[in-house]
Amino acid sequence: MSLYTIADLHLSLGVDKPMDVFPGWENYLERLTENWQKTVKPEDTVVIAGDISWGLVMEESRADFEYLHKLNGTKIILKGNHDYWFTTKTKVEKALSDWGCHSIRILFNNAYEYGDYALCGTRGWMNDQNDKKILLRECGRLRLSLDAGKKLQKEPIVFLHYPPVYGNGECYEILEILHEYGIKQVYYGHIHGYSSGYAINGERIGIDFRLVSCDYLQFCPKKIV
């Protein structure tokens, strides 16, 4: 039994928004499917750090979730900036239940136990003071998730969609919370293509940060433990 992560699947089986038009994304769905099924076993867990589907509403995302459900393992998903289909956790969970997608879980103001670890996370936000209200809301959601993880009495691992550090920039509000809760591992997505060259992969200010966007990982989930 192993734990994996990946982000930014950008599935579009129910809408006309193929990612194949971007460099490096050619035949990405076939590559993702093959790599996933060879790497992930049915008993494994994969945390998907946002940007799951291009659907604007849940029904437009149905084919994407049914595809995701058929892949090996339990999938724990969190919201990304392009996940417009996400309304409320309750509504999403009901739709997934109605569609028989029982292998998919939602990480939103909560935490999940995995072996010796507590899996925590939220979408996060960039260091943009013009959207202070959104940033503070995401900070609150991160705290809720970490508090839920603390009750599990396991070492927390944090998953974010937005990078809390990028190049020379830092989202101080998010980083302050990560330090407050003693976080040592953070996995994030959102960064693609040439921008990946500015991503932080390794230790900074006492935390190990790792970029796990789909194209950066060559469409293969990254093993954590």
Order of helices and strands: EHEHEHEEEHEEEHEEEE
CATH T-level fold name: Purple Acid Phosphatase, chain A, domain 2
CATH superfamily: Metallo-dependent phosphatases
From the spread of the alpha carbons, the general shape counts as globular
The structure class reads alpha/beta
Pfam families: Metallophos (PF00149)
Domain Calcineurin-like phosphoesterase: 3-194
GO molecular function, one term: hydrolase activity
Protein name: Metallophosphoesterase
Report on this structure.
- This is Metallophosphoesterase.
- InterPro entries: Calcineurin-like_PHP, Metallo-depent_PP-like, Metallophosphoesterase_sf, Pesterase_CT488.
- Helices cover 28% and strands 22% of the residues.
- With 225 residues, it is of the alpha/beta class.
- Strands 5-6-7-10-12-11 form a six-stranded mixed β-sheet, covered by helices on one side. Strands 4-3-2-1-13 form a five-stranded mixed β-sheet.
- The longest helix has 20 residues, at 132-151.
- The model has no long low-confidence stretch (mean pLDDT 95).
Short summary:
With 225 residues, the protein is of the alpha/beta class. The chain contains five helices and 13 strands.
